[in-house]
User: Fold this.
Amino acid sequence: MDVDGKIEVASYIPADSFFGSPYIDSDVWRESPLPHRHVHGGFQDTDTRFTFYFPTEDSYDGRLFHPLEGAHAGHEDAFGGPMGDVIGGLVLISRLGGYMVESNSGHIGDDIDPRGGDDPTLYGHRASVETARFSKHVAAQIYGAPPHHAYVWGGSGGGRRSPLCLEYGTGVYDGALPFMGGGEIAAHGVTTLMKGAQVMAFASMFNVQRLLRRQAAGVVDAMRPGGSGDPYAGLTTHQREELANLYQLGYPRGDEFMIFSPMGQIWLWSSIADRLASEDADYFTSFWTKPGYVGHDAPDAVADDLLDVTTTVSRVVTGGELLTDPAYAGPEYGGLRVMASLMSAGPDLPMAIEVEGLGDGYRLGAGLQLLSGKAKGRQLYCMGHAGDLLSADGVAEANLLRFRDVEVGDEIHVDNRRFLAFCYYYRHHLMDEPAFDFLRPDGRPIYPQNRVPTMSPLMGVAYSGQYEGKLLWVHHTHDASLWPPQGLVYEAAVRAVRGPEAAGERFRLRWTENAEHIPPAYLPSAPDRATSTWLIDYLPVIEQSLLDLVAWVEQGVEPAGSHYEFRDGRVVLPARAAERGGIQPVVSATVDGGERAEVPAGTAVTLRVDAEVPPGAGTIVAVEWDLDGSGSFADPADVVGTPTAVSLTRTHTYPTPGTRFATARVWSHRDGDRDAVHRRIPNVASVRIVVT
Assistant:
């Protein structure tokens, strides 16, 4: 296959009248990451852009796969770049026998389409649906026929919008696989802005970050394997209340370390702060001035963290410098480097500044407004910091430019009063969801209430649960960005539309245990324990689930869902694989028969791992131990690859005093292939050894 034939676009008439005629401005052959025809273009009179990736015919089996970008989207090349490498990109799509479609979801960066305005239907599904529809017109010319089936999928913001594409893309898509999605439920055809429970949930999380940052180590340790199980020990009454509220809202137990290692959650604040300040201005005034609000009633709870400083910029730092300059190689810059790699719009974009004289106030979430220079008036919000080095983001032009045109000596105002008020936002904006009932005993709110805010139009509209085709929803038990309760929303929507029995014909929910919002390789580690010893890379689960979705749609092979209970704000999975279901191995570990052992140095301990796979999920193909918390997993067990369950023991001696976490990582594979590189499904279990 080559690019000799010009693609014909004139005969294509968009089904959605908002879109002008399609155009193609680039049609080239590329060899990386595999040979493919790379087509880029857009629709006239809109900000909608697209990229199509057509592999060679020998790797194409007639399918369209449309991954949707996370967050607010806004880029039509996310899966063809570094983000694609993280999640599989075109190489994954080729293994699945498809070509790949990307769109920017109707907007450029975090800005809106000038013609589309604040219409959430455009960004939530219409731009993506029209893009996929046009891609079939192009595919028919390249391959001789349009794809026989089409699938839309994505995580986070892509998980938020992919169900909408299936709901409103009848005849375009046959199946959807959202993972880590969430939202609210409304009638099919809704065109209004969505309300988002995660806004209030993140406010609670930010408050616990702030209030407990000096007690973080104790909270985290209490909830680790072999810990006390009491994260409230040593906290003040106010701190206890805020941590308890966080759990009630659904924050996943066992992932407390991520409370104090803010990642993408703070992006949501930077993306909505201006909107909240405009639409809910009374709240941000009332918080400081009226009874019933902490800023007025208990100002000591926020006084020590206040920041209201006018200072000057002493350095401007690009994303590329954060990633490559040895000056930022230390662990204190780890979070900034991760954000630069995942959310940068290029290595030359200035993403951070250094300022002088901020003092001891709380930096995260603070507003940064440029008061002089070429960028005068630009409003950003601190997304991460190391001392007085602050990274930031904003909306519209601020998102696209960050600190471009900012120079050393420019004056800047750093003010966190708005963010401190937001930390208590969840108390005063209760949604009509069970997760908020603890804040309204007997149906009456405890605190003064304000109107629940709407989300950005870039997040789309509410779910209806009404669609043709099949939808396999994957959610994680330890996701600090889209908490487990959000994994229940869409199931409720489908059941409401179709009834509990018929819902199973088109919907499955599959839980992934011990998985965070992004793989552990991109997360910071604790000083005494690598993140990979308690969190797993969930990407093999996504690939296997995509294959299962294809088999469900095209062959009628029903995928395994997961069984669970939801109580006290948490998802509880059965302890036995046969009862739990899904596709992930169930793993448990002990040391000397328990979760914790205390032994003198030089004394041998006995480690045991028990693992089993759910019915139909294959066999256990590997077991490996990390004995010291380093994340090395350099101690493999002898596994033949055919059993569906294993029980293995080994002894180990720790020669020096200290606390160690030993972790067993178990891998299963649907086909029992010990040598397989892809679709190896992991799970982990850990124990604590205190050596005296």
In short: The chain has 19 helices and 25 strands. The mean pLDDT is 94.
